[in-house]
Write a sequence for this structure.
């Protein structure tokens, strides 16, 4: 890969980590005003409008038909549908810091899935590193469970499912980026999420007889700011960035950058939301991040030996 392209990929990856890390903060802010279903509907409405504008003005061109759209549907189900669904609901029961820490387990799942579906081989030291990261996740879960807070355990499980969805997306997107541009993938993914989440939210309001409150949260300026961030940057922006990055580098390498988001989310949660961080958060996050670094370091080592 040329140096210029390599620099662009790393800049995109760092931007992805920054946006992802701060998304937990804005999701928690939005949850103080609206329920998860409404937040998801509004954020993907913002993302859909943000993506539709350049298409209507023909700044970007799409080469899509029914068959090509059908190929991307499984990808859209994993991300954004399941990923953001699990994440937004999970953050009702867990803190922003925990959300960031548990997202760090995503690269571990990515390596396992990539090994099975993409036939990527892993060295013994990589496997040991994976076990270390998984132990970090288990440690945090058990320590939180020691308080017997059922709701918080539910939040942790949902956030882990969110991380698993992201991993499945990373592996599948790595394949699809060979035939689709990042804009084409993002358009289909955002459009499907826009339709599904709005259908869910509006149906819930009709059943509950509260349809008049669907747009009420927009009277809160903090909610508006949160939705603009979550829709334009976190939903649309990360979709474009990840699809671009995965078209250039391996899924396992790209997933490492999500751990920068972990650090950002922890700092944001403590500084802006005044959340508590305990010793087991630190120990668990060190195990997770350390294991992921080991996974990619030893993989790089093996690749260099093979190339030499």
């Amino acid at each position: 890969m040329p140096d210029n392209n390599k620099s662009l990929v790393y800049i995109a990856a760092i931007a992805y980590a920054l946006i992802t890390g701060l998304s937990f903060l804005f999701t928690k802010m939005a949850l103080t005003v609206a329920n998860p279903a409404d937040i998801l509907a509004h954020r993907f409405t913002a993302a859909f409008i943000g993506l539709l504008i350049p298409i209507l003005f023909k700044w970007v061109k799409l080469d899509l038909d029914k068959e090509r759209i059908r190929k991307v549907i499984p990808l859209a189900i994993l991300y954004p549908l399941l990923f953001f669904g699990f994440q937004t609901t999970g953050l009702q029961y867990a803190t922003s810091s925990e959300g960031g820490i548990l997202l760090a387990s995503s690269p571990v799942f990515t390596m396992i899935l990539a090994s099975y579906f993409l036939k990527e081989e892993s060295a013994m030291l990589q496997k040991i590193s994976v076990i270390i990261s998984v132990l970090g996740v288990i440690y945090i879960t058990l320590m939180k469970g020691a308080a017997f807070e059922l709701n918080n355990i539910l939040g942790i499980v949902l956030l882990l499912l969110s991380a698993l969805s992201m991993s499945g997306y990373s592996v599948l997107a790595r394949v699809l980026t060979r035939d689709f541009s990042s804009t084409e993938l993002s358009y289909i993914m955002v459009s499907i999420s826009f339709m599904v989440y709005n259908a869910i939210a509006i149906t819930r309001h009709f059943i509950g007889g509260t349809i008049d409150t669907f747009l009420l949260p927009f009277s809160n300026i903090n909610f508006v700011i949160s939705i603009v961030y979550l829709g334009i940057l976190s939903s649309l922006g990360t979709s474009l960035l990840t699809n671009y990055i995965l078209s250039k580098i391996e899924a396992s390498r790209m997933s490492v950058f999500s751990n920068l988001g972990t650090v950002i989310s922890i700092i944001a949660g403590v500084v802006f939301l005044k959340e508590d961080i305990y010793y087991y958060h630190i120990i668990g996050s060190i195990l997770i991040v350390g294991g992921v670094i080991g996974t990619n370091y030893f993989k790089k080592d093996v690749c260099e030996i093979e190339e030499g």
